[in-house]
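Students often ask why we bother encoding 3D structure as a string. The short answer is that it lets us treat folding as translation between two languages. Here is a chain of 75 residues written in the first language.
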Amino acid sequence: MSKDNKKSLKTVSATQLVFLENDMLRILFYCIFMLVLVGVFLVIGLMIGYSILGDGNAFDVFNWHTWQHILDFLK
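And here it is in the second language, the structure alphabet:
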């Protein structure tokens, strides 16, 4: 009887380990997905803010000279 108990305990712990790995992968996927989503919304927000509030071209946000001008203005 003790051999059966040991086998069932090993099976349960191995099964829990597999679920733990899947949960870790799922959490890692959600974290990466959220970081990408935040980055996309940041770029969209910069484009909307620069074009509507700043009366500029929305795609000038991607131009380095725009950011250099902003940094020079802040200094």
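Translate back mentally: The helical segments are 2-53, 64-74. Keep this in mind for the problem set.
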